[in-house]
Specification:
single chain; about 425 residues; alpha/beta; TIM Barrel; 2 domains; nine-stranded mixed sheet; three-stranded antiparallel sheet; 12 helices; binds zinc ion
Length: about 425
């Protein structure tokens, strides 16, 4: 998960259409300029979530709401999401803000706000309590993770694997949080890669990159952000002159023109999977520095719409979800072996819709798996010893469909 090798990166056919996943960090409103507090748990802005969901519906996008503990805990938080989830229009993942997630054993500090800095047992316990609560509220444990503050650490991959996760969205390329005791992603790129034992889990980094004439000299940018050069504010000068600009694929703090420039630059360099993200508190004015008034909110929604319009139109892209992507990506070289002990997980929570892969009864079907799996690299041969099967483990829909038909005939063959 940290420092992937070249062989871990997914092979993606460059002739494929660009794919977009949408991720909403769904969390309490807190003043980002203030210290972390356990008391900061208001989730009132979730009442407006349908407004942004309507926009995604228009573009047939099923976003991932990565929800944190206060959102899952309070009815103001989970109720509006339950309705969207029940109608199959979104996926639910987990987002760990340690300072508001029990057990509360650590002292509140900037260092401890990155979950990956906590002792293994505490990081695991917090993620477990978050996963349990999400399971209770939504009927299925989360399979997608995004660390609060992008704070993955040395133990995170093992914890995710142990708790049955499938995809991580925590990597924030080109960013360096080490001055705040967080991870350094300066050398990372916006390319999906496999990680964990047997490369079973998929990392889909947030899309962040450089545009401009000097983009191949990224080290310059890091240099300018550090003392004493940061005093000169040269980063802003470089951005304004178009020489070098670091851009996040987000309407928060970036313009539509910047988002499009990033898409085009990365696409030219071979990137085909894009991850667009925003924070739920931004959908009401006054909660984040990005949206401080009603006028700014309108501009924010309009920018999201124009971006999606561009991506699905002129850019010829298509929407996807992290789990859909995982199921269709070619696996790495060689045979894959893994121990599967997941579930029960509902097909619905995997983002599988009625009719996908020829399946019926998706709303009620769930699967449990326990055993050893091996799969050849081309997906042509598969073996499984144990009970049940984990469909999301499989990278190819054809294999998935065959397998479900063979092992779960009552699920796969049932008519609605
Ligand atoms: Zn967050």
């Amino acid at each position: 998960m940290l420092s992937p090798h070249l062989s871990d990166f997914c092979c993606i056919d460059p002739t494929e259409r660009a794919k977009l996943i949408v991720v909403i960090d769904t969390e309490e409103e807190f003043d980002w300029s203030h210290d972390f507090s356990r008391q900061n748990t208001s989730v009132g802005s979730i009442r407006s979530i349908e407004k942004i969901q309507d926009l995604f519906d228009e573009y047939k996008i099923r976003p991932v709401y990565v929800v944190d503990y206060p959102v899952a805990f309070q009815s103001d938080g989970h109720r509006p999401l339950q309705e969207i989830y029940a109608s199959g229009r979104c996926l639910i993942g987990a987002h760990l803000h340690p300072w508001v997630t029990p057990p509360f054993e650590e002292e509140i500090s900037r260092r401890n706000s990155f979950p990956g800095n906590l002792p293994l047992s505490l990081e695991a316990a917090k993620l477990r309590s978050l996963g349990d609560l999400i399971g209770e509220r939504f009927g299925s444990r989360p399979l997608i993770y995004k660390a609060g503050r992008y704070g993955i650490g040395a133990n995170t991959a093992d914890i995710l694997e142990e708790q049955g996760y499938e995809v991580d969205l925590s990597v924030c390329p080109c960013m360096n949080y080490s001055p705040q005791d967080g991870p350094d992603f300066t050398k990372y790129q916006s390319l999906p890669y496999w990680f964990g034992k047997n490369d079973r889990l998929l990392e889909i980094p947030f899309t962040v990159g450089f545009v401009g004439w000097l983009r191949f000299w990224k080290d310059l940018y890091s240099l300018l952000l550090n003392f004493p050069f940061n005093q000169l504010h040269l980063g802003g000068v470089l951005a304004r002159t178009g020489l070098l600009n670091r851009i996040w694929l987000s309407p928060e703090g970036y313009t539509l023109a910047e988002n499009i420039a990033l898409l085009r630059t990365l696409h030219r360099s071979g990137v085909r999977v894009f991850s667009f993200a925003l924070h739920s508190p931004s959908i009401e004015p006054g909660n984040t520095p990005y949206v401080t008034s009603q006028t700014e909110l309108e501009r924010f929604f309009s920018q999201c719409r124009h971006f999606l319009d561009y991506f699905m139109g002129q850019f010829n892209g298509v929407p996807t979800t992290p789990l859909e992507l995982k199921m269709t990506l070619p696996i790495g070289s060689g045979e894959v072996r893994a121990q599967v002990r997941g579930g029960p997980v509902s097909l619905h929570s995997l983002g599988i819709r009625e009719g996908d892969f020829g399946l019926a009864g998706v709303q009620t079907a769930s699967l449990q798996a326990s055993g050893d799996v091996s799969l050849s690299a081309d997906g042509s041969s598969f073996s499984f010893s144990g009970s049940g099967v984990s469909p999301f483990f499989l990278p190819r829909p054809t294999t998935l469909s065959r397998l479900l038909n063979a092992l779960a005939p009552s699920t796969a063959g049932a008519s609605a």
